[in-house]
Amino acid sequence: MNITILGTGFAALTAIKQVRKQSTDANITVIAPQAKMIYLPSIIWIPSGLKKASDLEIDLTNFFKKQNVNFIAGSVQNIANDGRSVITDQGDFDNDGLIIATGGSFIKKLPGIEHVITPCEGIKAAEEIKQKLEKMDSGTIAIGFYGNPKEPSAMRGGPMFEFLFGIDTLLRRQGRRDKFKIIFFNPMEKPGKRLGDKVPDAVLKFMHKKEIETHLGHKITGFETNKVLTEGGEIDADLILFMPGMTGPAWLADTDLIQSEGGMIKANQFCQVEGLKATYVAGDSGSYPGPEWQAKQAHMADLQAKSAANNLIKELNGNDDFEKFKHELICIIDTLSHGILIKRTEEKTILLPPCRLLHFAKMIFEKIYLFGYR
Length: 374
Prior knowledge:
Elements: E1 2-6, H1 10-22, E2 27-32, E3 36-38, H2 53-56, E4 57-59, H3 61-66, E5 69-73, E6 76-80, E7 85-88, E8 91-94, E9 97-100, E10 105-106, H4 123-135, E11 139-145, H5 157-173, E12 180-186, H6 199-209, E13 213-216, E14 220-224, E15 227-230, E16 233-236, E17 239-243, E18 246-247, E19 265-266, E20 279-281, E21 286-287, H7 298-316, E22 328-334, E23 339-345, E24 349-351, H8 356-371
């Protein structure tokens, strides 16, 4: 069987390992712009110098050889022939089964958004934050995020809390926190609710303790140079970090794939792309049924990828005892010195207060995770 996997992020890499585990003789083709993975969860540590680009850029050449994968360096342009053909800038590639894991894209429609830094765009953005902080002697730093109104799960709130608390800790270590005002802004009155009912109050209390000001409950209308515009007033700022909501991959607009209202690939509880056979999606590209609190995060991408790979192999072998992916949110909000553990399942939510050991646990997890790909 010929299986094509699109992407080199968390979902794609997990799908590769799981397909190979289930089928030692499958022909696996991976298509992505580069044979490289960026470990995005750790870009939060670039502004402090705790991590640098080379720590987080992983060459996947050896991993692909170990997994007996045929890698194609190309960009996806379309999915055709009911999922059986992938159109790229390097030609067309046919398959018997397809797993889409190319990630999503950010909604950059707010006026003046070119005046902000979007941290989760990658290493370059994190390096720009580091450079700007080093040049600033004093000033106001505004940090906020937004969502996709038509796709509740499509936001990156956790990393923005980490940049917020991480910058606060960094400035304190440098002995210059008193020269800066840090403001957190969000259109919700209690941001972070999807992490659990107790989380918003706990996070806001932590902000107050850290003397971080808030501007909450007001719709964001745009940005200007050194200014955040909201329906509740303007925020003057010398540095603005803002995470917009997410939508599907850029190439999706040119396809006939069924999309959700929020512009993502519509999938069912088995990660099957709606309306297509032997075609699955995992990670940020997809829109999935489930609780409103489900998140776009690496852990969920891994869970979806495992189910997608297992179900694809079952389908190609003529079986239909498909498995549902598990809904589980796990994250450690890192402050550069401590970590706040949040775990949410359909049964309960666990919230642990700031703990220094959790900061080191997050760093150790990165090393363990990346060891298998180096």
